[in-house]
Design a protein that fits this description.
Shape: globular
Distance between the termini: 23 Å
Helix content: over 70%
Structural class: mainly alpha
Radius of gyration: 20 Å
Number of strands: 0
Order of helices and strands: HHHHHHHHHHH
Number of domains: 1
Strand content: under 5%
Largest sheet: none
Length: 273
């Protein structure tokens, strides 16, 4: 690829970061997430972590988490990270659909996308917006992780050295988790007229794919591999893993993202601006 492509990609990515953190809409989204995450951190996450610590201290054979189907939380050496992992697997994919919905659709409807591609290319716009959306989410994920680390250190400051490897694992994993969702929104944003339509279509397509492929796999087990096409298909399996084991499923979101980005680029190349 030409150097100009990467220069344009970086410029568009920087603009996306500015739009995510320096505009009124971006600041409102960030503050809203921070407030919601504060209450999640302060109440359910801290309460569940304290309960885990008590159970480990008592060395009880029976665990309430196993009773409700969250026994895998106990596999994490730091309870706060185990609870965070389960919360994050539910929250960040949904958040990704909302955050990454408006990558190119609103600019195309306003007519500004036509002027942007005069000095760049459709590829640099498409991939630049995608990378920018991923960087915004990576920063949000890192912020949530460091707040969880702070909560852990208030309980026991000596856990810092043990927490850092898990911090890295969780960060990498969650970025991989939201990758296909962001790629799906990039493809939809290249086709539909608004972020609301992109969000609605994402939910409908996800439900349709899950239902159709799930039914096919049930009656024809040989087609079970098609489940890999559903973004988030691996989340239930990921929730049962801990530590470096979680990276054993990294190929699934990477493959999904590759397919969705190829599809999105094809749509972007043929879509009228």
């Amino acid at each position: 690829m030409q150097p100009a492509f990467f220069n344009h990609l970086l410029l568009i990515c920087a603009f996306e970061l500015k739009r995510g953190f320096a505009t009124r809409k971006g600041i409102v989204s960030l503050v809203t997430f921070a407030v919601i995450w504060y209450f999640i951190l302060l109440y359910p996450l801290r309460f569940a972590a304290e309960l885990l610590v008590q159970e480990k201290g008592l060395q009880a054979e029976f665990s309430i988490f196993e009773l409700i189907g969250f026994g895998a939380i106990q596999h994490w050496p730091i309870p706060e990270f185990g609870v965070f992992w389960h919360f994050a697997l539910m929250i960040f994919p949904m958040l990704s659909i909302m955050l990454a919905a408006d990558q190119t659709c609103s600019d195309r409807e306003r007519g500004t996308l036509r002027f942007i591609v005069i000095r760049s290319s459709r590829d640099s716009v498409f991939f630049g917006r995608f990378v920018g959306a991923m960087m915004i989410q990576a920063l949000w994920i890192s912020g949530a992780l460091f707040s969880t680390l702070a909560l852990t250190l208030t309980r026991d400051a000596s856990l810092l050295a043990f927490a850092l490897p898990d911090l890295l694992i969780l960060n990498v994993n969650l970025i991989l988790v939201v990758l296909p969702f962001t790629a799906m929104m990039a493809a939809l944003s290249a086709k539909v007229k608004s972020a609301r339509q992109a969000t609605l279509w994402a939910i409908l397509i996800w439900m349709f794919l899950a239902g159709i492929i799930g039914s096919l796999a049930y009656y024809l087990p040989v087609l079970a591999f098609l489940k890999c096409l559903i973004p988030g298909y691996q989340l239930s399996d990921l929730a049962q893993l801990s530590g470096w084991q979680t990276l054993s499923l990294a190929y699934i979101p990477l493959l999904q993202s590759l397919i969705l980005l190829i599809l999105g680029r094809w749509i972007m190349a043929r879509q009228a601006l």
